[in-house]
Amino acid sequence: MTSSAIEASGLRKAYGDKVVLDGIDLEVAAGTIFSLLGPNGAGKTTTVNVLTTLMKADAGTVRVAGHDVVTETKAVRAAIGVTGQFAAVDDLLTGRENLQLMADLKRMPGAQGKRVVEELLERFDLTESAQKMASTYSGGMRRKLDLAMTLVGKPRIIFLDEPTTGLDPRSRRIMWDTIRQLVGEGVTIFLTTQYLEEADRLAGRIAVLDQGRLVAQGTPAELKRQIPGSHVRLRFAGDAEIAAALRVLTDATRDAEDDLVLRVPSDGGAQSVRTLLTHLDTHAVDVEEFSVHTPDLDDVFLALTGRTSEKVSN
Amino acid sequence: MSDATTMLNRNVKHTLRNPVSVFNGAIFPIVLMLMFVYVIGGAFDIAGNYVDYITPGMIILTICYGLSGTALSVNSDMTRGIINRFKVMDISRSAVLTAHVAASMLRSLIAIAVLVGVALIMGFRPAASFPEWLGAIGLLVLATFALSWITVALGLAAKDPESAGMISVPLVILPFLSSAIVPADTMATGVKQFADYQPFTPIIEALRGLLTGAPAGGDTIAAVAWCLGIALVGYVWSLSTFKKRA
Asked: Transmembrane region positions (chain B) (predicted)?
């Protein structure tokens, strides 16, 4: 067993003359969380589809769990679990029947299958709704059932395509906890997301995908060194105040979109904020509005590609 | 349990959740049969008991009517995420399709049983011997098998559930342009030629021959050949469409 759960090199995929993946190389160590970060349309789902045998790449090689996805498709499928962007549950079956279907397809003997089904219902807090049809479930419950179905048979490598998009904050937190538990059990997780915060909190390594290319790859700490850190935004009443502020704040820069706003690099901590405000106060500069800004996906994109993610998706 | 049995179990559950889909297949042919036998059929010049003539045609119409449910359920599997889950699992690729065909056949055969029950009450008196009964049942199983495969292919090819619902309409119209209700000989020349050379006429004639105890060799061979051909086309088309749609 090699230490790499997923290895891809030179992946290319095009639909007609629209290039979706333009030479992707990545490596995911076993038992870690790897996050593919990118805006809509960057090629995240296509990457997942290629890695999970749903789609053939035009060029490049992929090994998942040590098996080639093209020549050893069956072995790859037996090792992985996939939860797509849209809940893949059977609406006309109950929650319990959905899980039982997975247990049967994984060829679990009757008693073992039943036990696994009950354990998963319990784990995902679905026991009460187990007898109800999946069509009556809320969005959060469907995602939970979907992930539970993926976990039947304990796959060693799990692909999660935007698992928290559209979830409410509470369901998102539950999803994060579940992902951490899985890694604790030795599972490898390949996660796509559009949220820097999510990748930052969960992943050991992050790769940033933009228009089918990986524009950066590294640990969250390495990646954050490449992007502008958090900063404080100060809004002033007029040009005179701005000019006064610029004289006392040597590291401040004007905001690109708002003439009355200055950006001052800061870790956003109480101590540094107090120092900053006291400094302005002693020089009698009035601040109208004040906010702390932590970097988001837009900042990452701006720093790495010189464009905002908004423009990328258009 | 094999993958196909597991999948069939799933499709049967779907049908049990929505039993109307089975009876929909039977109700329209029953209403038609009542109308033709008691209202319109009196004016037809057909030798013997008219209900004996029309029942084989209505049996085939029953199969065709039930198929829209099959096309819909195949299509909704493809257009919802569930199919991708099956595709990334280490299971037999054709199990999903085989199960749809088997479930479709089960629904058809139940609807046929209901229709035949009504026909018997209306005075349908088949004169088939035991081997002819076996032949008739065999032919029906083969015909539902063939029509189910072609419907699965159509359901896979349809872009969305709306078009899947419409796609089986030609299969419902064809029996009307065959010898189901009146002999093809009585039709206008163009329609007669069409009726003579389309698959439903030999299938219905073969079934009628077997049930009335006067099997027609030529029709039976043509019926079996048509069914095998339709089944083969449906099977090959289904698998290739299934592989193409991610």
From this structure: 21-41, 53-74, 95-121, 133-157, 164-184, 220-239
Closest Cα of chain A to B90: distance in Å?
5
Q: How close is the nearest chain A Cα to the Cα of B70, in Å?
A: 15
A78 and A155 part of one domain: yes
Sign of the alpha-carbon torsion through A98, A102, A107, A111? negative
Number of domains in chain B: 1
Q: Which domain holds residue A156?
A: 4-89+137-226
Q: How confident is the model at residue B79 (pLDDT cuts 50, 70, 90)?
A: confident
Q: What is the pLDDT of residues A196-219, one digit of tens each?
A: 888 988 999 999 998 889 988 888
Number of domains in chain A: 2
Q: Best mutation site among B72, B85, B92 for testing chain A: the one with the most A CBs within 10 Å?
A: B85
Tell me if A308 sits within 8 A of A298, measured CB to CB: yes
Which residues in chain A have their CB less than 8 angstroms from residue B2's CB? none
Q: What is the value of ipTM here, to two decimals?
A: 0.83
Quickly tell me which residue has 């109700």 as its tokens. B27
Rg (CA), chain B: 18
Radius of gyration of chain A (CA): 24
Same domain, A167 and A30: yes
Cα dihedral across residues A273, A277, A280, A283: positive or negative:
negative
